[in-house]
Amino acid sequence: MRLLHSKKVRTKIDINDTANIILFLAAFLGIWQLIFILQIWPKVSLPSPAMVAESLVGLVADSSLIVGIVITMWRLIVGFSISIIIGVGIGLAMVKFTDFGKTMSSFAVGLQSFPSIAWVPFAVLLIGLNDSGILFVVIMSSVFSVMISTYSGIRNISPIYLNAARNMGAHGISLFRHVMIPAATPSLIIGIRQAWSFAWHALIGAEMLITTLVGLGHILFVGREFQLMGQIIATMITIFAIGLLFDRLLFSKLEEKVRDRWGLNQQNER
What predicted TM-score, i.e. pTM, was given to this entire model? Predict the structure, then answer.
């Protein structure tokens, strides 16, 4: 009964969120159209929503947008997957070796705040103008967030859980697998969500600067070079839509499942 009530509440929240998004977009498009009609900026600087829609249709028709999305998403998936593997691995090593963890956590925090776009010249000179250089930028921009969340998540596990598990006979791998990893999962998911945001920003920026390779960033670069503001805005809308879909369909759903598993949603409903 409680589970059914939880699902109904969640469905109602999803419907309200969708309605709010639609209302916001409608208001935004209305204001945009009004500004265009008032001619505050020239058409070349700020085209109308209809002109941007026309540019979007053109990009889809000549397949440049589809190809750009596919290539960009491939780079994101590969680079981000490598970031998760490396970040979790080093984070676990930081927990295992205390001195290494304390030292590395300080470096990781500093490098996490390092501007992602600053890795591009380094990657170009070190690796070259190729996909490997872009993947390097994506990895370096996101791996430290995964590393810190793994390290902090495990270190911040309540000793009550660990002591209770040990009293029940859990030790070594069993304690790590069945107690420590599940307890650190909420923190890890937050870190991965943040790392994905860093990776997405870094990827688009790298594609804009490494202009010899196709991708969404390359489409933005071409639009800037030829003053095609309709193409630029259409690509920006595509980037925003992809980010929104990933957040809504992947990370939010994953976070909800973790909250259900830990009974956090039931606590909030009370």
Answer: 0.82
